[in-house]
Amino acid sequence: MSDRRLKFMKSSSFFSVVIPLHNKAPHIKRAIQSVFAQKGSDYELIIVDDASSDGGREIAEGLITGRPACRLCKRTEPGPGGYAARNLGIREAAGEWIAFLDADDQWAEGLLDEYRRLMALFPDSAFIGTAQREVSVSGKLSFDPFYQKTGKREPECINLLAYAHYGSQDCNPIHTSAVAVKKELLLDIGGFPEDRCVRGGDRDTWLRLLSCTDFAWSPFLGAVYYRDSVNMVTHTTPPPVRNCMDQTIETLIQDKMLLLRFGPAFVAEMRRLANAERKSALKHRLRKGALCPADVRMLYFSVQPSYWIRMLIVALIPGPLVRSFFRFVRFLKGNHNRSKKV
Questions:
Q1: Hey, which of 75, 112, 241, 308 has its CA 20 to 30 A from 59?
Q2: Is the pLDDT of residue 13 over 60?
Q3: Residue 8 scores a pLDDT above 60
């Protein structure tokens, strides 16, 4: 263990803030400065350069130089989704709690204070987080779907069953840049799935965490998620119909302790969540005219038979016809937008 890390372990650092960085040069300064804007000194900042080639690492180095509570770790090969970079940050962390921030997102002032409040309110939870704002490509500001659709405005604990229910309704209450987890628990569950996921690894990690502890949620708008960021995984990597969550969900469904705790509704809710994750991949394939019956058969028929039947019927339509339809829709939208500008 390096002398530098020993120094941090002897310090009063409580939070270890981990930022994975891969080709986010236009955004990394904003992310780092939002950490520096937090009150208190009970944190360290760990930036993990995931083999950036756009100058982002140099920007980060310039910002943290001379700050003893900040350090930069380097990886030689980039990993999908930043999962391996986060895992490296977790292993290097000296704090009891790990707080995550993506390099293209931003923290609100007072987020660490809100984490401290959640720890006091829910001392038995090892997994905490807040709501977040979202900024669209056009610059429109909104709130995350859970905060917006549920109308919840008081802190509460969310267990695995509730998370599956909200997730299947497209109301995910957990956001990577607005969570903190005890390091010990992250290590116990194996961290992020760097060897078996290209997308969906964050949600897979949340599921494994929730099998061990409830999630303490706050309506405080603790982070800002920008949809216009460069080099986003959601833009560069098509969603797979099957991802690492399928294996995790099946493992959880077979866990007798979880079945005993949550009852018969648990299996159905988890399978609805699996269907919800697969729907985005099916919609992507549909727009490309590449949807086939084999894709639809991956859905759980038992929990959503009507949706399964509708998608199967659509899958039988020849791909060229589907692609022509979506090209026509885009053409109509383009004409409509041009007429509005005139």
A1: 112
A2: no
A3: no
